[in-house]
Design goal:
Largest sheet: 8 strands, mixed
Number of helices: 11
Oligomer: single chain
Structural class: alpha/beta
Distance between the termini: 39 Å
Strand order of the largest sheet: 3-2-1-4-5-6-7-8
Length: 312
């Protein structure tokens, strides 16, 4: 955690469009993963409204095309593209990366799955860790050259307050030895996305790339489709946001001029988060999600897992 906590003029009620009001992203290219539903749509809409050329990286191309039409009807920008990307499928990610040939100014790692029944990818990886972290890890590292070519690029890695109760268990990231707990697995995957921002920023800052983590807050979206009524009953009393408000912190990190050169931090409600405390259970960032030693270890674990696939 940085000694000087950063705050902005925005807050939990601000919307993505509020954040980009007066911001000009003309000539910049952005990729938003999972941009066919939920806060991904509003993230893409706000970036497009500011003039960026936005690629909606989605599993369902038809849904992406409908989203592109919807965004195009609400903003004065027709530079909205759709590309197929399944973050649980390393072949799909590799194909997406190979097809990208131009400098990339903004990458928003927004897509995710939550509280899924125990499911494994063809590599044997637990689905939430594979999708939320490893998929985006492969995507971002694969696009590193394009990000560096942009000169001043930004990467946004979406986390969640669920990380607080879930430090990484590096010896068993894929729940091979432990009894599978879908909520714990989700929390660990979101600790991983926060740690990714720490280590990626350390490695890439000299290339002009800044990487930050964002907690969008509680938003009722398709992400919660695997939650039961019992699950919802057991959740804390969140102050739910609209998708437009949920997208605000991501868009802030992606585009707000006041954060130029800022990286390796964790934001929520459009401000850098304070350290998590039991007195504020629904806010803050846990020390284990910003630990540079853990971040470096996760990076190596991720490389090792991907290398095993290559050897296979």
């Amino acid at each position: 955690m940085s000694a000087t906590r950063l705050t902005t003029p925005f807050d939990a009620r601000s919307t993505a469009r509020d954040v980009v009001a007066g911001v000009d992203l003309t000539g910049q290219r952005a990729i938003v993963t999972g941009a066919s539903s939920g806060i991904g749509v509003e993230t893409a809409r706000a970036l497009a409204a500011a003039g960026a050329e936005v690629t909606l990286a989605v599993r369902d191309v038809r849904a992406g095309e409908r989203t592109a039409e919807d965004i195009g009807a609400t903003v004065a920008n027709r530079s909205i593209r759709v590309a197929q990307l399944d973050l649980s499928d390393q072949v799909s990610i590799t194909a997406f990366v190979r097809a990208w040939e131009r400098p990339l100014h903004i990458l928003v790692n927004n897509a995710g799955v939550s509280a899924t029944p125990e499911t494994r990818t063809p590599e044997g990886w637990e689905l939430q860790f594979a999708t939320n972290h490893l998929g985006h890890f492969t995507l971002a590292t694969g696009l590193h050259r394009a990000l560096a070519a942009a000169g001043r690029a930004r990467v946004v890695s979406l986390s969640s307050i669920a990380h607080v109760q879930a430090p990484m268990v590096f010896e068993d990231v894929n729940f091979r030895e432990r009894r599978y707990d879908r909520m714990l697995a989700y929390g660990e995957s979101k600790t991983a996305t926060a740690l990714f921002a720490v280590e990626a920023n350390r490695r890439w800052a000299h290339d002009g790339i800044t990487v930050n983590a964002a907690n969008p807050g509680a938003v009722t979206t398709n992400l919660g489709r695997h939650l039961t009524e019992e699950d919802y009953a057991g959740l804390p009393a969140f102050d739910f946001k609209t998708p437009e408000q949920g997208a605000a912190t991501s868009v802030l990190l992606a585009a707000w001029p006041g954060l130029e050169g800022v990286g390796g931090r964790y934001f929520e409600d459009c401000d850098q988060a304070e350290r998590h405390s039991p007195q504020t259970p629904l806010r803050g960032v846990a020390e284990h999600a910003t630990d540079p030693v853990a971040a470096a270890r996760l990076w190596q674990v991720s490389l090792d897992l991907l290398a095993d696939v290559g050897r296979g």
